[in-house]
Design goal:
Elements lengths: L1 E6 L7 H11 L3 E5 L10 H5 L4 E5 L7 E5 L3 E6 L13 E8 L2 E9 L9 H21 L5 E6 L12 H4 L7 H12 L3 E2 H5 L8 E2 L5 H4 L2 E2 L2 E5 L1 H4 L2 E6 L15 E5 L2
Parallel strand pairs: 1-2, 7-8
Antiparallel strand pairs: 1-14, 2-4, 3-4, 5-6, 6-7, 8-12, 9-12, 10-11, 13-14
The chain binds one DNA strand through loops.
DNA sequence: ATGGTCGGTCCCCGA
């Protein structure tokens, strides 16, 4: 089965681009981020016509995540546990699907950006990452096939950006953020890309500004983290770089894994 | 040629 993660940067504006890619790549599951709409505005019919079941956690204008699955969605949960009433961002949705070889749990994650670093946006990011790690730990204890996929807004290694000097003061490159991502991995996850490929200079995001795509000025911030049970089934990983050259592209491209599952 | 972006709550904010 093929599982994709893709920050689409508005599901409504991007709909023709997304459906075109889905028809070509034919992923079985898609973890989508930055849908930028409320649940009722989500274009359900267009994706149902392509054979997907859908779980959505939307909000007005910003953020928003969804999971599309050709397998039945047995249950889904909106929001990352551990938040209080002040956290109204739609950044996490989790679902259990019925794959051919049994149930699989997936999350679609839009981790906070955290810029600028000297504001409460950065502390929100770090708190959110702590909550994610705590929740991920409880999920790992289930010893299931588990995939945490999404836009992590973390430049984990120097090779994950075109020029570390340019990113040195950015919230995506902050040592605390990179350490927290490492701590999440250390709980027992396998990063699909690092496991199967791991070459430098393969990016998943190119800014719309400053001709970043044309100049090759990208960063690698979209990841699929696998539990040991899911990692055992990992066959391949692919960054769908061509999607950045489509008409009306997202600034992120899909990352796709193939699981023997 | 000293610029060069998108999207949405649309002229300002978030990325």
């Amino acid at each position: 089965m093929k599982i994709a993660t893709w920050n689409v940067n508005s599901v409504r504006t991007r709909l023709p681009t997304i459906t075109k890619w889905l028809q070509e790549a034919r992923p079985d599951v898609v973890c989508m981020q930055e849908i930028k709409c409320q649940d009722a505005q989500f274009p359900y019919e267009a994706f149902e016509a392509l054979g997907y079941n859908i779980a959505v956690h939307g909000q007005k204008a910003y953020n928003g995540v969804a999971i599309l699955s050709k397998y039945a969605i047995e249950e889904s949960t909106n929001g990352l546990p551990g938040g209080d009433e002040t956290d109204d961002h739609a950044r996490y949705i989790e679902a259990v699907i019925s794959a051919d070889q049994g149930p699989m749990r997936l999350a679609s994650i839009y981790l906070p950006n955290g810029n600028p670093k000297d504001t409460d946006k950065f502390t929100y990011k770090l708190n959110w990452m702590h909550r994610l790690r705590a929740h991920a730990k409880t999920l790992l204890a289930f010893e299931e096939k588990l995939v945490l996929a999404g836009d992590y807004n973390v430049i984990f290694r120097d090779e994950d950006c075109w020029d570390p000097k340019v990113w040195a003061d950015d919230a995506l490159f902050a040592p605390e953020v990179r350490d927290e991502f490492a701590a999440l991995m250390w709980e027992g996850f396998t990063d699909a890309w690092l496991e199967k490929d791991g070459r430098g200079h393969e990016y998943t995001f190119w800014d719309y500004q400053r001709g970043a795509w044309q100049r090759g000025h990208g960063i690698h911030i979209d990841h699929l983290l696998l539990s040991p049970q899911a990692a055992d089934a990992l066959q391949s990983v692919h960054i769908a770089k061509d999607a950045r050259a489509m008409d009306k592209p997202s600034d992120h491209v899909p990352v796709v894994i193939e699981l023997d599952a």
